Amino acid sequence: MRATMRLALLGTGIVLVTTATGATAAQATDGGSGNITIDRVVVNGGKPVVVGTTNVVSAKVSVTASDDSGIVETTYISAFGPKPNYAQIWYDDGDITCVKANATTSTCTGTLTFDPQASTGFVNNAAAATWNLATLVSAHDYDYIHRDAATTFKVQRYSKLTVNASPEPVKKGRTITVTGKLSRANWEDNQYHGYTNQPVKLQFRKKGSTTYTTVKTIKSNSTGNLKTTVTASTDGYFRYSFAGTATTPAANATGDFVDVQ
């Protein structure tokens, strides 16, 4: 299968290999007295990780854990994509920094790096889905805790939205044609392609105002293109607005000003 989206695999420590069932070959179980807990895990500030076709995207991960003896380290942070690819990004303990909140609790942070141009780690558009974040945390008294899905987070395909309102200037009462296109990243060829059959709002902001109002909702066609008409009434800005889907983030086009005479 052709390499589609490529995710950088960084670090030189523990290597976790995904199996046919999606579990890790080097999977640990909880150990020690059992007092250790993972209290909170946050990926990318709680927001989806949005990846385009060229730029490297970094997502901060924080793992807060507690033990009566104090936390030594978070040994690894791993992200696993959906079936059938089980794409993986991981770090060894040299890439994770732990800071004490108090004698028993620490927050350890690392970074997941998503690189659509890298040469390792192969996934396709199906990677725009919910991912699992796995981690292992160790305490001073040798307690440790491992979770394959300490939390989940979404990976999405970056979206673009354009608009053009014409003619401009236009006489009051005449017809304005508003065109545009909704597209999103395709990780199979690293290009942007039209996002078809999606509801998109045409919005208008009167000159001097800061608020857009929805005029109508239309759907993108088979190539992602948008086209509709409105009657010219007053000076202002037209834009298209896309609410997003589970696999694709919301997008707003930059408003196009129309001078109504």
Topology:
Elements: E1 5-6, E2 37-43, E3 49-51, E4 57-66, E5 71-80, E6 88-91, E7 97-100, E8 105-114, E9 122-123, E10 130-139, E11 144-157, E12 159-166, E13 175-186, E14 191-194, E15 199-206, E16 213-219, E17 225-231, E18 236-242, E19 251-252, E20 256-258
Question: Count the helices. How many?
Answer: 0
| Shape label | elongated
- Strand fraction band? over 45%
Q: Main beta sheet, described?
A: 5 strands, mixed
Q: Could you give the order of strands across the largest sheet?
A: 3-11-10-5-6
- Rg calc: 24 Å
Average pLDDT figure: 85
State the distance separating the first and last CA atoms. Answer: 57 Å
Give helix % range: under 10%
Instruction: Give the SSE order as H and E letters.
Output: EEEEEEEEEEEEEEEEEEEE
Question: Could you explain the architecture of this structure?
Answer:
This protein has 261 residues and is an all-beta fold. The protein is built from no helices and 20 strands. The strands form five sheets. A five-stranded mixed sheet has the order 3-11-10-5-6, with no helix packed on it. Strands 15, 16, 18, 19 and 20 form a five-stranded antiparallel sheet that branches. A four-stranded antiparallel sheet has the order 2-4-8-7, with no helix packed on it. The chain is elongated.
